Amino acid sequence: MDKEKALILARKDPRKKETFDYSLEELKDLTKTAGGEVVSVLVQQLEKPHKAHYLGDGKLEEARGVIEEDDIELVIINDELSPTQLRNITNRLEVRVIDRSQLILDIFAYRAKTKEGKLQVELAQLQYLLPRLSGQGVQLSRLGGGIGTRGPGETKLETDRRHIRRRIRDVRTRLDQVVEHRKQYRERRKENSAFQVAIVGYTNAGKTTFFNKITSADSLQEDKLFATLDPLTRQTQLPSGLEVLMSDTVGFIQHLPTTLIAAFRSTLEEVTEADFILHIVDASASDHDQHEKTVLSLLEELGAENLPRLTVYNKQDKVEGPFTPMEKPSVQTSFKDDRGVGDVLSAIEEVLSENWDPYHTYVKAEEGKFLKTLELNTLVYVRDFLEERGEYVVHGYIDPLHPLRDKVIPKEHKDE
User: Fold this and answer.
1) Are 287 and 308 in contact (CB under 8 A)?
2) Ranges for the Hflx-type G domain (predicted)?
């Protein structure tokens, strides 16, 4: 399939050079992920976007020339446009125009595989499109495919606002049912005191590679943005034997469309419901510090910034020169090397041992089932059989909120 030829139009705020360069490179990667080929990039220095046309008249005329000369099929704007700006630029350039948000939505639409993922994408697309239907409409019925037109709801869309509003209500109802089902599932996990680890990170940081290696899962693993869209949860064990549930989440990105954050709430709830955050960073990315800040900012928005967290600086095999971690506690590794995964699991235990309560208890030889329960639910570091007592002595660490705590730490020591 031929790649769609794209022209990128971008506004550069002279006060934000560093973030601009990074967002422009990211937009190129997004276009590639969506199946497009960036033929040309036009940039205009403006502190504020033009209210009606986003860029100035001269730059739009220059864009028209590039479109004709290079047979451009698509113009991609490196910002989220207002409905008026989108309509005006489309009329002016006489070619299909999409903005950064629509491009991200398009990739999500292409990558969503589960029923929930497809519903979430459709809801986000509908919410995005509704205010952008002009008098004649965006003429969605004649879009005829291409980047920015994909999605579970594309064949159902009409220019009739009432139809789209009805569809939004219908999708929300169906999504609420799926979300309720997921909520019940999470509550059951809580009742079983399952320890939950949410893997978060900027898109393409290596989250799914890590997830697959520790859980033997076969989820999509690609060197592309947004390879994972649907939340996956699998059980695994830490070196001590502690059982944990690992959840692989959607990749974070700067300027994620607000409709997408809202629509993917159940995916992101895997983060807010977790007991521990594993933040994976592509240390080889030139702007990895910006990636980190974006993820930390979104974690704050989700109310998950105070959960115990370990930052993993991945892809060290590609890092050139000295590397200074921005966050602590952290571990520097590469998932290319199988030892890298072991390093991370051991580091998770270290962080937990600093946050959990130490315990020292004795378990009778005939209480093998309880001993196994301790091994699966706490960090056990010493387990020795004392023949003279006919008991096991067990040293370890336990989550202060775990129901087993009262059985291994006498009440008089609770507040020590």
Assistant:
1) no
2) 195-356
